[in-house]
Specification:
Helix content is 48%, strand content 0%. It is mainly alpha-helical and 93 residues long. The protein has a domain at 9-68. The longest helix has 14 residues, at 53-66. The relative contact order is 0.16.
Length: 93
């Protein structure tokens, strides 16, 4: 596994904190508890983007919007698509 420097939530400046909060607000409630958490409890995949807050906000906000319950796909269909993308990319997320 690779290692990159991340910024813990407790050390985040306002820009990073706002980016993390804005992307979390868009995520489905099932994603509230990270599968792969960092020592401070945040999601490791989100923390891996903590050095570039704007990239974090855009990348994860996109996913959050794509998972919106207002879209015509059912939650089951959304999860099937994300599962197949993960399998195709050989990714555990």
């Amino acid at each position: 596994m690779t290692w990159i420097r991340t910024i813990p939530v407790a050390e985040a400046d306002e820009k990073l904190r706002l980016a993390m909060e804005s992307q979390m607000a868009l995520y489905p409630k099932e994603y509230a508890t990270p599968v792969h958490a960092t020592a401070d409890g945040s999601a490791a995949i989100v923390a891996s983007h903590s050095l570039i807050p704007e990239a974090l906000r855009h990348a994860f906000s996109t996913f959050g919007v794509l998972m919106s319950p207002d879209l015509p796909l059912s939650r089951r269909q959304q999860e099937m698509i994300t599962t197949m993308v993960s399998v195709t990319n050989r990714c555990v997320y």
